[in-house]
Amino acid sequence: MDISIDFMRRIARAAAAETLPRFRSQAAVANKLAESFDPVTEADREAERAIRALISTEYPDHGILGEEHGSENISSRHVWVIDPIDGTRAFISGLPVWGTLVGLTVDGDAVAGLMSQPFTGELFYANATGSHYEGPGGPRKLATRKTKELSQATLFTTTPALFKGAARNRYDEFEKQVQLARYGTDCYAFAMVAAGSVDIVADPGLKPYDIVALIPIIEKAGGVVTTFDGGPAENGGDIVAAATPELHAAAMAALRG
Known about the structure:
The chain is an alpha+beta fold.
């Protein structure tokens, strides 16, 4: 099925109405985990409520899986996967590299998705027409870079600290092979793969709502997104996205050791 850009824009606007007024507002932050820090804000919860309401009205038979408000009707062939603020740590730190992620799976495959960054006025989206950008500089179709060699690649990860034990050693060796490595930016780094500014993103331990929306944006721009062992990314896990099949294969080999 196709999802119209008009509906994606409506989702982005509804989420922005809840997130933007609370960004850089010194609002209260709650911690979801007693043993560590997993922040959540009122903006997360209210943005997801707004998105869910739109989806339920437009597609009442579809299922929904959201980070903050759980699942409903996920036995449906069509399931929307929502992360109202991917990058809550950036959000509470006042950094505009967070985004709203909303993706659609059909029979488990991600077929459409959006990443909205309302502070910068950017919308990255994919539907049946391909992968697209709207924002500063004007609308355009997205395309990944054609980088094939690790030695020419720009690599992002949220932080190397997420790699544990032997995986950290493999990551450190992997990083030595690339031209440039940078950290942070959560979903924004994945969007930059689709936009042709970043070549590889490697992030372990992702949840479905961290990645589903981004899969079609990257794939329809020419990139590849899988788990480190080459499996489908829709269920989350250790995820690597790359600009080309050749670069993806090289990255997987390095990450597996």
